């Protein structure tokens, strides 16, 4: 069974990917309920943490029920990364993860995120600085390389393991690809099957169904799978994959009761964590996904996204339960959105 330092994970762990503006505590709560085995914060700027920026500090929040839990940091300066790892340690997460995969220009131009894939020595120095500054296990999340000509993940994995990184998650795309094309897991499989690599290797990219998860598990031999976009609006993906791996059966689509219950819990946690105004506001983008597939849901949805009190929203959710009580859901394929479609390279 894979372990990260002293964190023992189940046999084939499913990880919730760190996602800026998505993987916050309310969303993580519903993913945990549905079987996510290891979860991460949104990425946090090391400079922001040091400056004590409110937004960065807020991202350190997590609850005991979320464990094992990792905080992800990014940055291009060794001292800032070391200091921010020490700040992370004060809130006692289970591990610190370093983001070496973010492709956006304002991050890579500072030598952070996927920017380091052009300079592995810098990547090593940044990682060593973090490892030396904390007693927590340090993991990394990265991509295959900078572009098609520099797919250096095999070298990266070895050098990271040599300096003490305790697990690696690999998104099967290069920085230049952003989200284009299909994630290529061939190199992820090569890293995993390199006899020198003994740390857990988690595969990431485009997993959106139990069948694909099983096929990739078998084909590439990875230690676990990290799931990002497929979980957005569909936290049930974790339990579906687990059930399929354990039994070979596809679970029926989540019921209306489950969908409404997830909406209510997510809303409740959002309000707890962000306060009523922001909590209610930010929850508005989630209803469409959670209630996808219900015929004629538009009018209800309009109410959900305009109401301003939890009582009124919960009442509409109860009306939805009543209105659709005899409706049986089909599992509709999950659509993986290209989030960086308009991202300047
Ligand atoms: C909205 C969004 C925000 C993301 N933010 C982060 C982040 O903060 N840190 C990180 O390492 N990756 C981030 N990613 C990348 C995901 O963790 C993941 O590597 C990528 O989406 C591929 O996995 P998927 O095909 O399962 O979505 C983000 C992705 C999305 C869609």
Q: Uncertain runs with pLDDT below 50, 5 residues or more? A: none
State Rg.
20 Å
Total strands: the figure is 10
The largest sheet, given as strand count, sense and whether it forms a barrel, is:
8 strands, parallel, barrel
The CATH architecture designation of the largest domain is Alpha-Beta Barrel
Going by CATH, the homologous superfamily of the largest domain would be Aldolase class I
> And the CATH topology of the largest domain?
TIM Barrel
The total domain count is 2
Q: Which geometry do the CA atoms define?
A: globular
Domain DUS-like FMN-binding: 15-318
Organism: Ferruginibacter yonginensis
Enzyme class: oxidoreductase
Function: Catalyzes the synthesis of 5,6-dihydrouridine (D), a modified base found in the D-loop of most tRNAs, via the reduction of the C5-C6 double bond in target uridines.
Quick summary of this structure?
This protein is an alpha/beta fold and 345 residues long. Helix content is 42%, strand content 13%.
What can you see in these coordinates?
It is built from 15 helices and ten strands. The protein has 345 residues and is α/β, with parallel strands linked by helices. The chain folds into two domains: 9-247, TIM Barrel (Alpha-Beta Barrel); 256-323, Non-ribosomal Peptide Synthetase Peptidyl Carrier Protein, Chain A (Orthogonal Bundle). An eight-stranded parallel barrel has the order 3-4-5-6-7-8-9-10, surrounded by five helices. Strands 1-2 form a two-stranded antiparallel ribbon. Strand 3, helix 1 (25-33) and strand 4 form a beta-alpha-beta unit. Helix 1 packs antiparallel against helix 11. The longest helix is centred in the C-terminal third of the chain and has 19 residues, at 256-274. 46% of the residues are buried. Bound molecules: flavin mononucleotide. The site of flavin mononucleotide has 23 residues, from strand 4.
């Amino acid at each position: 069974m894979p372990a990260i330092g002293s964190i023992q994970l189940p046999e084939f762990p499913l990880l919730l990917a760190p996602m800026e503006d998505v993987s916050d505590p309310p969303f993580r709560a519903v993913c945990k309920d549905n079987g996510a085995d290891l979860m991460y914060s949104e990425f946090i700027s090391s400079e922001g943490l040091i400056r004590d920026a409110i937004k960065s500090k807020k991202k350190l929040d997590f609850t005991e029920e979320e464990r094992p839990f990792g905080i992800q940091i990014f940055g291009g300066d060794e001292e800032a990364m070391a200091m921010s790892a020490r700040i992370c340690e004060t809130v006692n997460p289970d591990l610190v993860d370093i983001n070496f995969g973010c492709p956006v220009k304002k991050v890579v131009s500072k030598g952070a995120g996927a920017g380091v894939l052009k300079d592995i020595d810098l990547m090593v120095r940044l990682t060593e600085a973090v490892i030396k500054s904390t007693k927590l296990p340090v993991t990394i999340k990265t991509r295959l390389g900078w572009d098609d000509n520099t797919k250096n993940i095999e070298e990266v994995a070895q050098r990271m393991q040599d300096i003490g990184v305790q697990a690696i998650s690999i998104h099967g795309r290069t920085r230049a690809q952003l989200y284009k094309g299909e994630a290529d897991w061939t190199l992820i499989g090569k890293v995993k099957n390199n006899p020198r690599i003994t740390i857990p290797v988690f595969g990431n990219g485009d997993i959106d169904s139990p069948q694909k998860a099983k096929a990739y598990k078998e084909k590439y031999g990875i230690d676990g799978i990290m799931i990002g976009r497929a979980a957005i609006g569909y936290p049930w993906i974790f339990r579906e994959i687990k059930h399929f791996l354990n039994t070979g059966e596809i679970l029926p689509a989540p019921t209306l009761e489950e969908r409404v219950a997830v909406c209510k819990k997510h809303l409740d946690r959002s309000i707890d964590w962000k306060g009523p105004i922001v909590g209610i506001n930010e929850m508005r983008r989630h209803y469409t996904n959670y209630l996808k597939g219900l015929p004629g849901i538009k009018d209800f949805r309009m109410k959900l996204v305009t109401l301003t009190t939890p009582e009124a929203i919960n009442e509409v959710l109860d009306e939805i339960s009543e209105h659709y009580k005899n409706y049986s859901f089909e599992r509709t394929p999950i659509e993986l959105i290209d989030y960086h479609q308009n991202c300047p390279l």
